[in-house]
Amino acid sequence: MARRSAVALLLLGAAAGLPTAVQAAPAQVSQTQVSQSKLVPAIAAVEAAAQAELADKQVPSIAIAVVGRNGILWSGAFGHSDAAGSSAATADTIYRAGSVSKLFTDLAIMRLVEQGKVDLDAPVTTYLPDFRPTNPYGVPITLRHLMTHRSGLVREAPRGHYFDNEAKGQADAVASLNATTLVAKPGTLTKYSNAGIAVVGEVVARVTGQPFEQSVKALVLDPLSMEASAFSRKALTAPVAFSQMVSFDGGRWEAPPLELGTPAAGSLYTSANDLARLAQALLNKGALPNGRLLTEASLSEMWREQYEPAGGRRFGLGFALGDIEGQRTLGHGGAVYGHVADFRVMPEAGIGVVVLATADASPVARRLGNHALSAVLAAQQGKPIPVWQRSLAVAPAEMNWMAGRYVDGADSVNVRQFEDRLVLDAPERAAEVRRLGSAYVLDDVQLYDEWLSFAPDGTSLKLGGRTYTRAPEQKRPAPPVPELAALIGEYGWDYNILRIYERDGKPYVRIEWTDWLPLTRLGADHYAFPSDRGLYPLESLTFERGPDGKVTAAMLGAIRFHRRDFGAEAEAAIRSAMDSGIAALRANALKASPPVEADTHKPSQLTAITSIDPSIKLDVRYAGINNFMGQQIYEQSGAFLQRPAAEALGRVQQRLKAQGFGLLIHDAYRPWYVTKMFWDATPEANRMFVADPSKGSRHNRGAAVDLTMIELKTGKPMVTTGRYDEFSSRSYSNYVGGSDEQRWLREVLRTAMEAEGYTVYPQEWWHFDLVGWQDYPIGNFRFSEIR
């Protein structure tokens, strides 16, 4: 991706000719100055890191501001701000800041504290008398508890929660908490709660007598002159940066513009340059050009760790506490529907950083924030500038010896090739494996983890402090117990899917795309999240069933995730939009001509698959109506491949027979005119599911086959993670879902096919291409014309 950068650089005492500074509010406090010669290489290191992440992670855009007490030292942006890629992102581009919003809510409360209108240690019912969640502990919740995530409240409110696309506002979300029960005694342990900060925001609204969005603007945004920022999209004067949702085993798609029902917890829209104004004010201990945001005493209290550590992160009043290179850091991260943010200051060093990026739940912002702070601090201290640790894709030769299954007790790690990458899925993480110098890391758009190493001889790997040993060939896993088998599946919204699956014989959940966790059974259809980690500690899932006993929903407290079959829904939508005039489609397609190619291909030798091995079974879906179009496409049944491909398939059949399986063919050679029929009949919005006839398809060349396996004892097709031709993530060859047995069957088929020169199409577990498929010409013979 080409770099598009808008840069502002302020170097105190810099030579003429440098770009003009983007000024935040003028500081009234002196700053330890960094000389131009020292700062320039530090900023160059930050730029290089941002460009590397933009390219390696395919992030649409990244914006960064580095801040000092006198204003912005440098700000820049990379990538594009729109879906078409035609508008360059700048440091003034608007992003969603996610949970950085919480700092503004807490700052608003502290301004009210200074005005004598609220008391941090009074029961919150002093200000919200109708706030009455069930509290069995006898300790009232206070604002101090809420601002430090020590309230004991659940993470999300029953209404207006993170997934809610019909939220009725923050007051309604807070009112819905009356239907919940505290999961911990207030003040005893850290349990992160968006709902808790929504309560803080509602206190701001009640005390000021204004809607929260207006109150936080008057109390915080306006004093900081953050004129481009707002807590609702409708209040913006500029568009929001294009952003993407990401799934390890489901691709990427445009993030939804979902407005949160708890704006105090995550609805800030801002730019790198605008958010830098808060960083400057904090570095100046609350001083503003015309007064103060807060007193030094109030900020000191916000920056003080309020409780002894007791699980999770360390918090002051709103501020997350940390350190880098021995320097104290204060700030907050953020993640909300396609956007991530990192906001931190080093108060003693006089340095701050803002990073905003557009890939959902990504570590990109945090890692770049770390690097920027370290680089500028090193420049300030006269130390060598740190170099960005850029990982590289694992080479194909390495993939061969690294791929496999590794076990530690009852837990397993799977390492396999996906497209041109090496990927790993483990009990609580899934990501790409990459090389970093002589070491290996998990490094992709959703995860960065250095706790990984492989034994040089490939006999073991270490991950997260555990050693997993390469396992011999895995025996067929037993089917899951009936209760778990009924629960396995996907629930929720298109933009936020909850997945229940089996791993190593145990129930697991994936929630909010990146949280992969084991579940503990509490009772029939009732399962608990781990109590010490993840997004939902001390909470649980309860499953609902209909009159027929089938599972209809997963309940996260009072939040209902409806059972979904995304593949069936997509198929129904496509069928309903299809032009059912198949005869006319066929006639028009037969009149058209395939694309002209250079005559550099091997000659076509289409051969009936069953002539190579009559024991191979056929179920050619497009010869009937059991296909995604619901129409008969082929005029007659048949399955043909180029002779080398058919012969290789015969060898696969013999391999599988030894394991009690056989092949069942759904499609093989496909005449080009059928590809054109698919294209012409499919609405433009759905054409990602079919091949472009102007390029031809792999099936047209007779070296691609769609198939599954049958059990020789029963003659029944295997049931794997998804159905044939299913338009959902369950079709991905690296899909981490379904049952252990289903994924094992999928891998048995893949292993047998790869052993005979086929490669799996990454997004379709059933589709295999013979290596060298592109050497064959595009064919347009009808089955009746093949001799």
At the fourth CATH level, what is the homologous superfamily of the largest domain?
DD-peptidase/beta-lactamase superfamily
Q: Name the CATH class of the largest domain.
A: Alpha Beta
Q: What is the radius of gyration?
A: 29 Å
Return the CATH topology of the largest domain.
Beta-lactamase
Number of strands: 39
CATH architecture assignment of the largest domain: 3-Layer(aba) Sandwich
Please give the count of helices. Answer: 18
Per DSSP, what share of the residues sits in E-state strands of 2 or more residues?
A: 15-25%
Helix percentage: 10-25%
Shape: globular
Number of separate structural domains: 4
What structural class results from the helix and strand content?
A: alpha+beta
Write a compact overview of the structure shown:
The protein is built from 18 helices and 39 strands.
